[in-house]
Design brief:
Strand order of the largest sheet of chain A: 3-4-2-1-5-6-7
Helix content of chain B: 25-40%
Number of domains of chain B: 3
Helix content of chain A: 25-40%
Radius of gyration of chain B: 25 Å
Number of strands of chain A: 14
Oligomer: heterodimer
Number of helices of chain A: 10
CATH architecture of the largest domain in chain B: 3-Layer(aba) Sandwich
Radius of gyration of chain A: 19 Å
Number of helices of chain B: 11
Structural class of chain A: alpha/beta
Strand content of chain B: 25-35%
Strand content of chain A: 15-25%
Structural class of chain B: alpha+beta
Order of helices and strands of chain B: HEHEEHEEEEEEHHEEEHEEHEHEHEHEH
Largest sheet of chain B: 6 strands, antiparallel
CATH topology of the largest domain in chain B: Rossmann fold
CATH superfamily of the largest domain in chain B: Succinyl-CoA synthetase domains
Largest interface: A-B, 65 and 50 residues
């Protein structure tokens, strides 16, 4: 799992370093087509699309295949971005993993939990990484964009942003960019109860990046991913600055707040629980998204020392 | 979906889990006639989709017709934690020896189901220290695991066997119906040694609804929420007077938090999704216009891809069509925001550069009324 940069960017010296081939599942749908264009515009090397019964044709110069297997055989791609509607996601994700895809970025929202669990089981068996579902994707600013995030908020740098929410990922990265903190990677965990890459998994993927300036964690109510991350930081120690934000303090209990995963039962999933664990881990929690960059700046240049 | 107790119990029955005699009654007349069949004494229970009914007085014993008359109408009219009583469940009473806890729950961190069981049932599971927890795959429990759990919570012989059968049924229900939680609390051991489910809670995965037409009858009809869902929005009604609209669940939650910090009272949470078009924003305004207590709207849109002018167009059209007449405070970040500002000059919408400013303005506007 820690090899996410090797998969996404490759290693210097590779013929396709920072130009790794990417296939798109569901490229001919309106949503998939639009974001394929935007990813290409950003410089992502999209080499094939997969849409059943459209094999042999092409879209905007990109060849289409009936199956992921055919697309992988023709291109050698190990990365797939999936735009297949939730109802059909399970089969398309299985197909991708069985065809040798090593990184599956799962965009669709409303995937049933049972399907996500089945995909994660299969991914474990094949040594593949799944990001999402219900994620905006992952971006290495200036290098590659795998997902639906707008390009504007992001700029190259040394801060990592991990977020359950899409729009908050954009908003907060935008603030960081304005404050002079570019990002080495920004990754959407997704808003579902079950995530292919959990917050702790993402932390493990990025904690040893050379030149890492620090990590911004954008959490929200529901589940205990933030608590687990805070515990991990307490137990394993982490010298770089971490700043967190938690959305949903004012949300009523037992109501699903837009994301399938954003729901509080009793104290489980509550903002208080998350904030208190972060506090134990000595991680400051911003009250507002716009406070994050100032808190982060304060952590980087501690006053009076 | 969070099922009501009686709905959860319908599922329990379908999967062969034993319960006491029970009837669902909407009116006192129905309850009186059901009382004839059930026979006193029984309990009447408010059916609400929240916990804590007992403490709130939503469960009462009825030993005779006078007590039924006394309690029924009061509980029927009762709201618990803001949720109206949907209907009433009458249920026989029994001689209870002890109370257990058992559930199957989706564990988000471990990414699997877990069985949780305890010999200390009848209280909220969070406060139970003696929990037996076992991880379960998508195939559900097997006999060995059931026997193991029964033993660990101190059951023997026929009680252990009966517990195993109940856990097997509960697990089958959980997998078949795709639940996030299926809970029996308490699972009572009666004086005669038999096990019955006294209370039940089932929460299913909304995203799997398309595979479960048989559960559709349990879905509560809400014109607003259904229309919102049909447009790809999510809407949660709240009890304040400032409607909060934005794109993306996290952003709208964050706006709600900041509004509450500033003393504002949100009337709803409305997430119009990652993208926003003129049509979708107009539909959002249409929905908000149906909430009578709304005095103003707070809009917070972060449009990386969305053009802010499309949002401006929707609001101008809504005023023109007479859909709304109150003021709107908005923060629209994204492409063409200067042009959007020009379009909205002189209208009842004030555009603010920061969400903080938009909130201040919305709170002031709401207080004016």
């Amino acid at each position: 799992m820690s090899g996410i940069f090797e998969i996404i960017r490759g290693t210097p010296g590779d013929a396709d370093y920072e130009k790794k081939p990417v296939i798109v599942q569901g490229m001919t749908g309106t949503f998939g087509a639009r974001h394929t264009d935007l990813m290409r515009e950003y410089g992502t090397n999209i080499v094939a699309g997969v849409t059943p019964n459209k094999g042999g044709t092409e879209r905007d110069g990109i060849p289409l295949y009936d199956t992921v297997k055919d697309a992988v055989a023709a291109t050698g791609a190990q990365i797939a971005v999936n735009f297949v509607p939730a109802k059909y996601f399970l089969n398309s994700a299985k197909e991708a993993i069985e065809a040798g895809i090593k990184l599956l970025v799962a965009i669709p929202e409303h995937v049933p939990v049972r399907d996500t669990l089945a995909v994660i089981d299969l991914a474990k068996k094949h040594g593949a990484t799944v990001i999402g579902p219900n994620t905006p994707g992952v971006i290495i600013p200036g290098v590659i964009k795998l997902g639906i995030m707008p390009a504007v908020p992001f700029s190259p740098g040394n801060v990592v942003v991990l977020s359950k929410s899409g729009t908050l990922l954009y908003e907060i990265s935008d603030n960081l960019t304005q404050a002079g903190f570019g990002q080495s990677i920004a990754l959407g965990i997704g808003g579902d109860p079950i995530n292919g890459t959990r917050l702790v998994d993402a932390f493990d993927m990025v904690r040893n990046i050379p030149d890492l300036a620090g990590i911004i964690v954008v959490g929200e109510i529901g589940g205990d991913a933030e608590e687990t991350l805070a515990e991990k930081i307490i137990v394993t120690g982490f010298a770089k600055p971490v700043v967190a934000y938690i959305a949903g303090r004012a949300a009523p209990k037992e109501k699903r707040m837009g994301h399938a995963g954003a729901i509080v039962y009793g104290n489980y999933g509550s903002a208080e629980s998350k904030v208190s664990m972060f506090t134990k881990a000595n991680i400051p929690v911003a009250r507002r998204p716009t406070e994050i960059s100032a808190l982060f700046a304060g952590k980087i240049k501690p006053t009076g020392s | 979906m969070r099922l009501l107790e009686y709905q959860a119990k319908d599922l329990f029955e379908e999967f062969g889990i034993r319960m006491l005699g029970r009837r669902v009654c909407d009116t006192l007349e129905e309850a009186k006639s059901a009382a004839g069949e059930l026979e006193y004494p029984f309990v009447i229970k408010s059916q609400v989709p929240v916990g804590g009914r007992g403490k709130a007085g939503g469960i009462q014993k009825c030993a005779n017709a006078d007590e039924l008359e006394l309690h029924f109408s009061r509980i029927r009219e009762m709201s618990i934690k803001g949720e109206k009583t949907r209907t009433i469940l009458l249920e026989k009473m029994a001689d209870i020896g002890s109370e257990l806890y058992v559930s199957l729950m989706l564990n988000r961190g471990k990414r699997c189901y877990v069985v949780i069981a305890s010999s200390e049932g009848g209280v909220e599971i969070e406060s139970v220290k003696n929990q037996t927890i076992r991880e379960v795959g998508l195939m559900g429990v097997n006999d060995e695991l059931c026997a193991d759990v029964a033993k660990e919570i101190g059951l023997k012989d026929s009680a252990a066997a009966e517990f195993g059968a109940i856990l097997t049924s509960l697990s089958k229900l959980a997998m078949d119906k795709e639940v996030e939680l299926a809970e029996i609390n308490p699972l009572a051991i009666l004086k005669d040694g038999s096990l019955v489910a006294l209370d039940g809670k089932v929460v299913t995965d909304d995203n799997s609804n398309f595979r479960h037409p048989e559960l559709a009858k349990y879905k509560e009809y809400s014109e607003l929420e259904d229309r919102a869902a049909a447009s790809g929005f999510s809407l949660v009604e709240l009890d304040g007077n400032i409607a909060v609209v934005g794109n993306g669940a996290g952003l709208v939650m964050s706006t709600l938090d900041m509004l509450s910090d500033s003393g504002g009272k949100p009337a709803c949470f409305l997430d119009v999704g990652g993208g926003a078009t003129t049509e979708s924003v107009y539909e959002a305004i249409t929905l908000i216009a149906k909430i009578p207590r709304v005095r103003t709207i707070l809009v917070n849109l972060y449009g990386g891809i969305v053009r802010t002018t499309t949002v401006a167009t929707a609001f101008l059209k809504a005023y023109e069509d007479g859909l709304i007449s109150f003021k709107v405070s908005a923060r629209l970040k994204g492409a063409e925001s200067e042009k959007a500002k020009e379009m909205l000059a002189g209208s009842k919408i004030t555009l603010h550069d920061t969400v903080e400013d938009a909130i201040t303005s919305a709170v002031k506007e709401a207080q004016r009324h």
